[in-house]
Task: structure prediction
Amino acid sequence: MDATAPSSLHDFGFSEMVDVLAAGGVIAHHAKALWRALHRDGRQDLTSCDFLPPLKRWIDANVGEGKAFFLDAPEVVDEIHSSDGLTRKFLLRLGDGQVIETVLMGYDGRHTVCVSSQAGCAMGCVFCATGQMGFVRHLRPGEIVAQVLHARRILKQIDPRKRLRNLVMMGMGEPLHNINAVMQALDIISDVRGINIGPSKIAISTVGVVPGIRRMAEEDSPYRLAVSLHGSTEEERAALVPVSQRWPLEMLIGACREYGRKTGKRIFFEWTLIEGKNDSPETAARLVDLLDGIDAHINLIPLNPTSGFAGSASRSGHAFQKTLRAAGFPCTFRQRRGIDVAAGCGMLKADRRARSVPG
Ligand code: SAH
Ligand code: SF4
Result:
């Protein structure tokens, strides 16, 4: 990276913020005020903040156009509401023009933000619109944090009494392919002095990047792990998830067992039901064997139609669920809320014509 390129203040963890200020002759004490302004109050313009003179002087000299530091403030280029009003999807334009999506969902009295970790995705899952776009670039921590700040700002406008308490890394991209930036961002997002979303309310969803799962196990990561499985045999899975060739099913399940042993945490397995591909009674029975002994919750996701694949008939989906439940696994259906606004993964960015849906 160019040593003189400006940095985003949203990229820094708290101790880095202390160091940055110290390098400019501002004592640690002021880092708290700056942190609160950025993350607790979500300020987008620091010049109007009521800071003490040393911090104010530092900001005037260092933050802004043509200066050493800037704030991540993505521009909203599109916003779509579901007809029930409970899901809002935002297309956000980043500094270099890349467009990503962030979704705010509010149901059952809980509000959840679904956050992107990359522009595009390198993993190429055949049923996923983001995967079909290919990989563009990783997001910086600040670009991840800014999505949450945006969602929180919107929630405040909708209902000032409501708090954003849940986060899922299930937007565009594969979070464990960009693990350093994602972990840095989640540390910032869960900091109690700032955004303060509890680590146990944060889920990282991965297509099965085994080194990332091992790292989460070794570090006893406080975040929840969700693994997108979609197949009960190597063949079945690889037909849907090409990276299964790199991290085969057996290796992935081994890493999940290890994760369970080391952390004692439950793993959420996501299963997108696709007609004729992974929704048969035989597949359900094999899945039961595969997950034997793992503390697993299975989330069945009705396919959002993208390109040539059909969602399962609800009959086969319910039979699938029944088999898993009979074997003792908690197994639930992901609600299809928001599908009428093309809130399915990757769908909006890939197809902006979906905007014509009533909101
Ligand atoms: N890359 C990560 C997180 C983003 S995708 C992952 O794959 O887990 C989040 C979830 O959406 C994954 O479970 C993925 O399989 C699912 N998904 C992608 N495309 C979908 C579609 N067209 N219909 C339903 N679910 C989809
Ligand atoms: Fe990437 Fe996840 Fe889509 Fe697969 S499902 S292409 S890993 S975003």
The chain has two domains: 7-70, 75-341. The radius of gyration is 21 Å.
